[in-house]
Automatic annotation (TrEMBL):
<dbReference type="InterPro" id="IPR050772">
    <property type="entry name" value="Hydratase-Decarb/MhpD_sf"/>
</dbReference>
<dbReference type="GO" id="GO:0016787">
    <property type="term" value="F:hydrolase activity"/>
</dbReference>
<protein>
    <submittedName>
        <fullName>Fumarylacetoacetate hydrolase family protein</fullName>
    </submittedName>
</protein>
<dbReference type="InterPro" id="IPR036663">
    <property type="entry name" value="Fumarylacetoacetase_C_sf"/>
</dbReference>
<keyword id="KW-0456">Lyase</keyword>
<dbReference type="InterPro" id="IPR011234">
    <property type="entry name" value="Fumarylacetoacetase-like_C"/>
</dbReference>
<feature type="domain" description="Fumarylacetoacetase-like C-terminal">
    <location>
        <begin position="100"/>
        <end position="258"/>
    </location>
</feature>
<dbReference type="Pfam" id="PF01557">
    <property type="entry name" value="FAA_hydrolase"/>
</dbReference>
<keyword id="KW-0378">Hydrolase</keyword>
């Protein structure tokens, strides 16, 4: 029997739109969902947002590091989408746009050429990077206490809710992206640190994985899109008044106040 993706998408959409916690879909609505089903429901959800006028900006990779797997209890990379209106100004996060936001430092990649296929290599990606940039994703699972599983988080567009992008374009040829260290400070105290190798061994590997995912639908990774490759460290909950600072080796440092 055809599964009711619309009902699941409607349920998650309500939670997203009203910034209201919902119970994870696998508890009741989507008990028998496969990962494939979850992506179908995600597609219907994205269509609901597009009907509201939201403009897709880029796909994103999530759950690409062990730090995130350990924190969330789900150990498989996932793909979601960022809309244009999710991008916050460079120095501020508006707390009231979220339910219970967390922040995670990431490395962003913009390609200069579309990439497609199942057997791309890290080198293929490196040869086609336009620039890399620093970014902090603001994740805001709609599920109570971020309590989800693989299927539920995919259907919730991978907790996508906001992001802060640095505005400096860095050429990754001059250094090894897998060794780029990243330190996350909350209110001047170090919360966590890691480096590019945390992301599937190399941030470019996240683009390889994204290409594989998109290829199932006959799609490719597009040039010009700002793609977040996944949280490098665990993600702390934030509160109004918090000061978030992310220090990178070569990428632009970010300093963000939660309003
Ligand atoms: C899911 C989103 C994960 C990342 O970078 O790992 C993600 C979550 O942790 O809520 O975006
Ligand atoms: Mg993320």
């Amino acid at each position: 029997m055809e599964k009711n993706y619309q009902a699941v998408a409607d349920y998650v959409f309500e939670g997203q739109k009203n910034r209201k916690e919902i119970t994870k879909i696998t508890k009741d609505l989507a008990k028998d969902y496969t990962v494939e089903d979850a992506y179908k429901a995600q597609e219907v959800l994205l269509d609901l947002w597009k009907k509201e006028g939201a403009k897709l900006l880029a796909p994103k990779m999530g759950l690409t590091s062990k730090a995130k797997w350990d924190q969330m209890g789900v150990d498989s990379p996932i793909v979601g989408y960022i809309f244009e209106d999710m991008i916050e100004t460079m120095n501020e996060i508006q707390f009231d746009r979220y339910i219970h936001p967390k922040v995670e430092p990431e490395i962003g990649i913009v390609l200069k050429k579309n990439l497609k296929g199942n057997d791309l290599t890290i080198q293929d990606v490196l040869d086609n990077i336009d620039y890399v940039f620093s970014c902090v994703e603001v994740i805001d699972s709609r599920y109570e206490n971020f309590d989800f599983d693989l299927v539920s988080v995919i259907a919730d567009n991978t907790s996508a809710a906001g992001a802060v992008f640095g505005n400096e374009k860095t050429d990754p040829k001059a250094f090894d992206l897998s060794k780029e260290t990243v330190k996350l400070y909350v209110n001047d105290e170090i919360y966590a640190e890691g480096d590019g190798s945390a992301v599937l061994g190399h941030p470019a590997e996240a683009i390889v994985a994204l290409a594989k995912h998109l290829n199932q639908y006959g799609e490719e990774v597009k040039a010009g899109q700002p793609i977040m490759t996944g949280g490098i460290t665990a993600a702390p909950l934030i509160q109004p008044g918090d000061k978030i600072r992310v220090e990178y080796d070569h990428l632009q440092n970010l300093e963000i106040t939660v309003r």
